[in-house]
Amino acid sequence: MTDKLREHSFDGIQEFDNKLPNWWLFILYGSIVFSLGYWLVFHTFKIVDLPVAQYNKEMVAIADAQLAAAMEGGITNESLLMMVDMPESLAEGKALFDQYCVVCHLEKGQGLVGPNLTDNFWIHGAEPVNIHHIVTNGVLDKGMVAWGSQLGPKRVNKVVSYVMTLKNTNIEGKAPEGEQVPE
Ligand code: HEC
Q: 95 burial class (0-12, 13-18, 19+ CB within 10 angstroms)?
């Protein structure tokens, strides 16, 4: 095979016009085919999750497993606190609060018929298990509903974890009731 020279001269420099080697072309066309497949699988048809989504799924599964383990000994301050760190479950808790609790406790928990949940005064105790107890069993003669039977235990846990995020946000609202607890 003789090397072919291109006719053009660029600044006095001439180039050979050789066929590109097959291994090089193989990589070029291979990458094009691969990128097309990748695009279809990951982006167009979303058959496989992208790494970030895979990671998030795994983290949720781990958090659920940890929570299940923590719940084995029953509801504890620790298991309820753990739920505060689980964004998806906390978001559900907020949605439940917005749906069922704001009529009496208002949208920020600042209180109306029910007490202000954002101050550091609590009638029935400020610990997560205290809040869990009151939300589950209610105070029927005072007008606080027993949510345990209405929402079921899982949703009660979620809404309780959300109430814990309102604690000490100190929104101006209903005057303090109950006993002061350290912040
Ligand atoms: C119909 C009105 C009403 C609704 C709806 C309501 N509450 Fe209450 N809640 C009250 C009242 C009244 C009290 C005060 C009970 C008392 O004086 O012992 C109270 C007390 C509480 C307490 C205890 C506060 C403390 O100082 O110890 C918590 C926690 C609470 N509610 C959470 C919730 C959550 C969570 C929801 C929604 C799932 C909810 N409440 C829905 C009326 C309501």
A: middle
| Extents of the domains making up the chain | 89-180
CA dist., res. 162 & res. 82, Å (int):
11
Nearest CA to ligand 1 atom 22: 134
Indicate the top mutation candidate among 80, 90, 100, 105 to test ligand 1's pocket, ranked by most ligand atoms within 8 A of CB. Answer: 105
For ligand 1, say whether the CB of 124 is within 6 Å of any of its atoms.
yes
- Residue 74's nearest CA partner among 142, 136, 6, 129 is 129
Model confidence at 28: pLDDT above 80: yes
Q: With a cut of 70, say whether residue 144 has pLDDT above it.
A: yes
Count of positions (residues) in the chain: 183
pTM value > 0.85: no
Backbone angles phi, psi at 146, to 5 degrees: -85, 100
Is domain 89-180 given the CATH code 3.40.390.10 in the classification? no
